[in-house]
Amino acid sequence: DEPLYRPFGAHVGAVDGGGSPHPPGTGDPRGVWPRRLLMFITDRTRTAGRPLPSIVAEAIDGGVNAVQLREKDLPAGTLLSLARQLRGVCGTRALLLINDRVDVALLCGADGVHLTEGGLPVGPVRALLPRSMLVGKSVHTVGAARQAEQDGADYVVIGTVFPSSTHPEIPAAGPELVRNVANRLTIPVVAVGGISADNFQACVDAGASGIAVISAIGLAEDPRAAAEALGPVLETPPVTSVEE
């Protein structure tokens, strides 16, 4: 059977063979990429008034294996404090990725940094960070996804797949966008945008390696149960190629 995790740097174009401080088989998911990803992207304004760390903890209890800290309006010092708190919450059960802030990612001991499409370029960030840290990129087109891989990204997040209350101004591209990107990349493709327990399967069928959600967990009455409802994505056999 395919292992649940693989070392960072195992994709085509990696600088070296890994350099992971936590090899597969140690029971520690840090330093390795999950075969299937269930990512919770934070938004502390979408927690129904509950503390963000408690939402993250419940989400991880429900099966989330990656957390992207995305709180763009926080001052650097406040963001670092929150990142360090979430590093403790994630522990060895979930990857912690920091949105855009390479400095905060390094200082809090995160597993990687996630770059926005209009943010820092992948190449220089990849060169700056140790090989054991992930560099991800948000993209909205096939061309941007291919460029991200060429520049050294470890994964891409593609969307918006379905209509999203988080980004209502962005037209939903549908699972077809996921299929077009997944068929042209060798790195993992994570689908985002309006994803729920009712529609995630369409993303997986289109070739996504995982899904990312905000409101589906953050605004849920029971975040753990909401994560568990999305949990089947973790059990779906990987798709190697999808007919267009």
Considering the chains and any ligands shown, give keywords for the structure.
244 residues; alpha/beta; 8-stranded parallel beta barrel; two-stranded antiparallel sheet; 31% helix; disordered N terminus
Biggest sheet details: 8 strands, parallel, barrel
Global Rg:
16 Å
Beta strands, count: 10
Order of helices and strands: EEEHEHEHEHEHEHEHEHH
Low-confidence stretches: 1-30
Strand content: 15-25%
Overall form:
globular
Order the strands across the largest sheet as they lie in space.
3-4-5-6-7-8-9-10
- End-to-end distance: 27 Å
What percent of the residues sit in helical stretches (DSSP H or I)? 25-40%
Structural class: alpha/beta
DSSP summary: helix tally: 9
- Average of the residue pLDDT scores: 86
Your description of this structure?
The protein is of the alpha/beta class. Helices cover 31% and strands 17% of the residues. It has 9 helices and 10 strands. The protein has an 8-stranded parallel β-barrel, surrounded by 6 helices. Helix 1 packs parallel to helix 2 (76-90) and helix 1 (52-61) packs across helix 9. The longest helix is centred in the middle third of the chain and has 15 residues, at 76-90. The radius of gyration is 16 Å and the shape is globular. Residues 1-30 have low confidence and may be disordered.
